[in-house]
Specification:
single chain, 205 residues, alpha/beta, Rossmann fold, four-stranded parallel β-sheet, two-stranded parallel ribbon, 8 helices, 6 strands, binds NADP nicotinamide-adenine-dinucleotide phosphate, VLCFA-Steroid_DH, oxidoreductase, lipid metabolism, steroid biosynthesis
């Protein structure tokens, strides 16, 4: 598939690459081995959240480097900033995006390429079952506008003020070890639980 994409993009001048594609196989907190269809969940998560981003970067970056100009925006997640027990497959894949982006930025900054890693909390989309927007949950349009306004100012961002404050509060109130401990007591896992439409769909597949 990537060879076909590469062939079709040949000769095109691409200034901005947004690696947005991503999937969350189970929205509800699920222990690793309890995921139904675990083999498929692993392969889907890795190929969708990680492999696609690396391959698209390999394909598009060379002509940016040649012109000494380009912007790559990679969608990670707050879930990639620390391990999220009961969601480790998604969380780890987004951690990969964060590390890859930061490393890539360091490697190519001097060659005129900006790499930005965007790490949202909750945005109302299909992935989050179009949850109601409020001061914590942004609409997709509002979030995209705010996040794009940060381009050129920061190469690693929560994308908007509300999410930056939530991320800061999480770090302050629930540092990594406390967060993981609360998950092990199932306190946080229950907090994140939601009525399940999407997971039921995945179980049936
Ligand atoms: N929404 C949030 O709260 C949130 C929070 C943190 C990070 N993120 C990240 O933000 C990015 C965008 O997510 P979103 O909320 O907009 O999710 P979404 O509504 O589910 O959209 C995901 C996008 O990825 C595409 N996609 C998913 N699985 C695919 C597959 N197997 N093959 C090809 N395309 C596939 C979808 O294509 P189709 O439209 O064709 O289905 C869609 O364009 C993702 O990387 C996600 O991890 C989202």
């Amino acid at each position: 598939m990537y060879q076909a994409i590469e062939d079709n993009l040949k000769g095109m001048e691409i200034g901005i690459l947004v690696n947005n594609v991503g999937m969350l196989v189970f929205f509800n907190p699920t222990r690793f081995l309890d995921m139904p269809n675990i083999d498929k969940a692993i392969m889907d998560t890795i190929s969708c959240n990680m492999l696609s981003l690396v391959q698209m970067t390999r394909i598009v970056l060379p002509q940016m480097v040649e012109r000494k100009k380009g912007l790559v925006i990679n969608l990670s997640s707050e879930a990639g900033s620390r391990p999220y027990p009961m969601g480790i497959l998604y969380s780890s894949s987004k951690g990969f995006v964060d590390f890859f982006s930061r490393g890539l930025h360091a490697e190519y900054k001097s060659l005129g390429i900006t790499v930005q890693c965007v790490m949202p909390l909750f945005v109302s989309t299909d992935m989050t079952q179009n949850m109601k927007t409020n001061i914590f949950v942004k609409s997709a349009n509002d979030y995209a506008r705010d996040a794009l306004n940060t381009v050129g100012y920061t190469n690693r961002t929560s994308g908007c003020l509300s999410h930056a404050l939530q991320s800061y509060a999480l770090d302050l109130l629930l540092p990594g070890p406390v967060f993981e401990f609360l998950f092990s007591l199932k306190i946080l896992a229950n907090f994140f639980k939601r009525p399940q439409k999407k997971d039921e769909k995945n179980k049936k597949k």
